[in-house]
Amino acid sequence: MRRFRHFTGNESASSEINISPLIDVVFILLIFFIVTTVFIEETGVDVNKPRAASAQDLEKNSILIAVTANGQVYQGGRSIGIDGVRSVVAAMLESDGTIPVIIQGDTQTDHGTIVKVIDAAKLAGAKTVNLATSK
Hints:
Helix content is 32%, strand content 13%. By secondary structure, it is α/β, with parallel strands linked by helices.
C-alpha cells in the first residue's frame, strides 16, 4: 500500500488557473446591471407620509415632489417653492408627457399647500397627479 505520493522534478503539469471565463462573466453581469438599472430622482427631503390602507405601488418612472411640514416644496433635492412646480413639471414632461406626478406631502402640511401644488402640476400639463402614502 502506497500512502505518500512521490514527486519527481520532471512533472510539467501547469497549475495556473484560467481566469478568462471569469472576466467574461463579470463583464456580462456589469452590462446586465447597467442596462436594467432604473435611476429614480428622489425628492431630497424626508417626509412623514400619511398612512393609507388602500395604498398602491406606482411605476418607478415618475416626477416626485415633496412638501415638508412647514410648506416648503422640494424636487430633486432643491427647494423650488409652489411657484416653481409648474415650470419644473413642464420641463420634465417635455421628454415624456405621460409621466405621472407624485406628491409626497407631510402629515403636518397645510391642505391648502398640497392643493396649490396639485393645481400647479395640472396646469403644467400633468395628466395624472398622485399623492404618496405609506402602507
